[in-house]
Amino acid sequence: MTEENQKTVVNSWNEWDPLKHIIVGKADGTVVTAPEPAIERDWPEHGFPLGTYGPLPKEMEDKANEQLDNLAKVLERRGVRVDRPTPMDFNQPVQTPEWKQETMFGCASVRDMLLTVGNEILEATMSQRSRWYEYICFRPLLERYFKEDPNFRWEAAPKPRLTERTYKKDHWKKWKTMTEEDKERAIQNRDWVLTEEEPCFDAADVGRAGKDLFVYNSSVTNRAGIDWLRRHFPDHRLHVIWFHEKNPIHIDATLVLVRPGLALKNRVRTPLAPGMMEFFKKNDWEVVDCAEPALDGYPPLSFCSQWLSMNSLMLDPKTVCVDAQEIKQMELYDKLGLEVIPVPFGAVSAFGGGLHCCTADVYRKSTCQDYFPKQIPGF
Ligand code: ABU
C-alpha cells in the first residue's frame, strides 16, 4: 500500500507504546516573536535585543530543517508513517477584534499545539498571541484524518481571548526588579504571567500514561486551563504537577514518562507538587534523575533550556530517540536497558524544542491501561 492510500487511524494513549504514525514539525519561516504580554525575548548577544523581532537567520533555519527532515527519515526507516505541517508566513501581523500582534512564531513544535488522547486530537488553546493562529498549519492534516478515520474525534479547546486581563500587568518588569526572596515566593506560589481569567494551556504541558494524565501548571498553562482539561477528560485522572523552576514551560524537559514503571525527572528542578513522588513510588514506578546535559545554558535564540537533553521520543517501550549531542543521557538510557537511536537535533532548539516537542503522535499500537492503580488523595 502506498503512503497516499494508507488510511489514517488516530489512537495513542501514552508516551511509549509502539509508534506507527506521527507528525514532525517544520522550521520554515520561524521568527523571534514580536513583543506581547505573555513573554519577553531579550537576546542582545544574538542580535535580538528586547523589543526587536524577525525571522531567525536563514542558515539556522536550513540546519534545523535538515535535522527535522533527517528525523522524519529515521522514523520512516523504522516503519513509522510521517506527516508534516504546512508552514505559513509567520512574519506577518495577526489580530482579533481585541488585540494586534506583530508576528506569529512557527510550526516546528507540534507537541505544543496538539494533544492526542486515544482517538482524539485536541487543539490546545495556546497562551501567546503569536501562537493563536498556529493551528492553521495543522488543519490540512486534521482535515485529512477526519475524512479517513470515521472514529477520529477532532476537538479544539475554546480559543482564549488573550486580552490584557489574561496576563498579569507588568509581570516581566516586576520579575526583573524582584529580590531573590520575592522570586522564591513567586515560584512557591506559581505566580506566573497568566491570570485565571480564562482557561489557557499548551498541549506540551500534558504527559500521558493511559488513565492518568500529568499536567504541568506552568507559565503557559494556568489552573483554569487544567480545570478545563479535567472536565474535558472525565474518564481520566488528572494530576497537577509543578517544580522549582523560574521559567516553567512544558512538561517534557522536566518529567518524562519513559515506559510503564520508569520516569525521568529533571536533575535540578525539585518537584513541589505534594504527593507526586510518593504517588510514583506507591505504584512501583522508579523516577530516575536525568543525566547532565551537554550544554550549560539556553541555546542561542532559544526559549527552551539545555534540559532539552531529556526531551526524548519513545518508539516503543524499549527504544528511544535522543539528541545525538547528549552522550550522558544516551549512556543513562543504555544503562536503563533501552536501545538508543542518536538523532542530531541541537539545531532545532531555537525553532521550538527537542525530539518530543517537535513531534505529535497520531497512532501508537496502544490501549488505555491503568498504570497507577494506587491513587493518593489530593494528588
Ligand atoms: N518546550 C520544552 C522546553 C522546556 C524547558 O526548556 O524547560
Describe this structure in words.
This protein has helices spanning 58-77, 110-113, 139-148, 171-177, 180-189, 223-232, 276-282, 327-335, and strands at residues 19-24, 31-32, 54-55, 81-83, 94-96, 99-101, 114-117, 120-123, 153-156, 206-209, 212-216, 237-241, 255-259, 262-265, 286-289, 313-316, 319-323, 339-343, 359-364. By secondary structure, the chain is of the alpha/beta class. It is globular. The chain contains 8 helices and 19 strands. The protein has a 3-stranded mixed β-sheet. A 3-stranded mixed β-sheet has the order 7-8-9. Strands 10-11-12 form a 3-stranded mixed β-sheet, with helices on one face. The protein starts with 18 loop residues before the first strand and ends in a 15-residue tail after the last strand. The model has no long low-confidence stretch (mean pLDDT 97).
Secondary-structure blueprint:
Layout lengths: L18 E6 L6 E2 L21 E2 L2 H20 L3 E3 L10 E3 L2 E3 L8 H4 E4 L2 E4 L15 H10 L4 E4 L14 H7 L2 H10 L16 E4 L2 E5 L6 H10 L4 E5 L13 E5 L2 E4 L10 H7 L3 E4 L23 E4 L2 E5 L3 H9 L3 E5 L15 E6 L15
Parallel strand pairs: 1-4, 8-9, 11-12, 14-15, 17-18
Antiparallel strand pairs: 1-19, 2-3, 5-6, 7-8, 10-11, 13-14, 16-17
The chain binds gamma-amino-butanoic acid.
